[in-house]
Amino acid sequence: MAFVKVSREKDIVYQYDESGVARVPILVGECKDCALERVAILPGCDWSPEIYKLEEHNQVFLIMDGEGYIRTPRRVFNIDEQAVFVPEFDKEHFIIHCSPKSEKPMKIMHAVSEIHPFDLDCLTNARMALPRFRRISEAWLYKEFNTAENVQQLTLLEHRNLGRLSMGGTIDKGPTKVGTHIHNELEQWYIVLPGSKFTYYAERDGERDEIRVTEGDITFTPHGSHHGSWCEEGENYKYIWFELCTDGYPGNIS
Question: How far apart are CA 206 and CA 126, in angstroms?
Fold first, then answer.
């Protein structure tokens, strides 16, 4: 039985409510500390997500496709490419709007995580300024040397700055690769963006999973798994990684 789990975009049936919003839980029960759902918003419609106290939950919204904006009482963030949004807990309500001019529904990966003692320590002592809105084109760049030379590696939510959660991405054109590596403490999801297709693999306890993924697919790999990927000629890497550090990072933040 495969230990890497996949939510395939082609298998999702979006049933829209009267407000033009569809919500589909995915990969249910795979990570005890984080629940994921796919959200779709029809053009011209709004979604007003639930907000949580800092002591309750953390949440992250990854805009995978579509155009529109996020409006808080203080600011408006224009969505004109893939982007991540993290609200400031229950400080203010906000809406996510899909433009009536959008050619397709807005697609969102929404993650809600449990609050661990490490999260509480980090989020009350030293964290990124919230709300955080960052487009892919605004991401910080970093480099791991087990990747092909021209791979662009992105940081969207920095490690240690949002409790146990972090997010980044990988962009390149095939042929290319991300070499085998391991995250001993990180639960990891890959969110495959439009225009992307590649082969992902992972190894754990003598078992190997090799999976072809394409745009809209979302994978989950448990911590302690060696993994990597490659991209053939004519294919593209454009995916987001999202991570949860099981027990938090070493060191005393406070």
Answer: 40
Residue 144 confidence (pLDDT) = 81
Rounded CA separation 36/204 (Å): 23
- Separation CA 97–CA 45 (nearest Å): 6
Residues of the chain with pLDDT under 50: none
Backbone angles phi, psi at 224, to 5 degrees: 80, 20
Burial letters for 224-246: b for 16+ Cβ neighbours within 10 Å, e otherwise? Answer: ebebbbbbeeebbbbbbbbbbbb
Closest CA to 62 of 26, 100, 30: 26
Tokens of 32: 């005890």
pTM over 0.90: yes
Enter the tokens of residue 58. 């953390």
Domain range list for the chain: 13-137, 139-245
For 82-119, write each residue's pLDDT tens digit: 999 999 999 999 999 999 999 899 999 999 999 999 99
Identify the helix (H) or strand (E) that includes residue 134: strand 132-135
8 A C-beta contact, residue 147 and residue 171: no
Rounded to an integer, what distance in angstroms lies between the CA atom of residue 234 and that of residue 191? 20
Residues in Cβ contact with 176 at an 8 Å cutoff, skipping those fewer than 6 apart: 147, 148, 150, 151, 230, 231, 237
Which conformational region is residue 230 in: left (phi greater than 0), alpha (psi within -120 to 50 degrees), or beta? beta
Q: What is the CATH number of domain 13-137?
A: 2.60.120.10
* Separation between Cα atoms, residue 90 and residue 36, nearest integer Å: 19
Beta-bridge partners for 201: 210, 228
Classify domain 139-245 at the CATH class level.
mainly beta
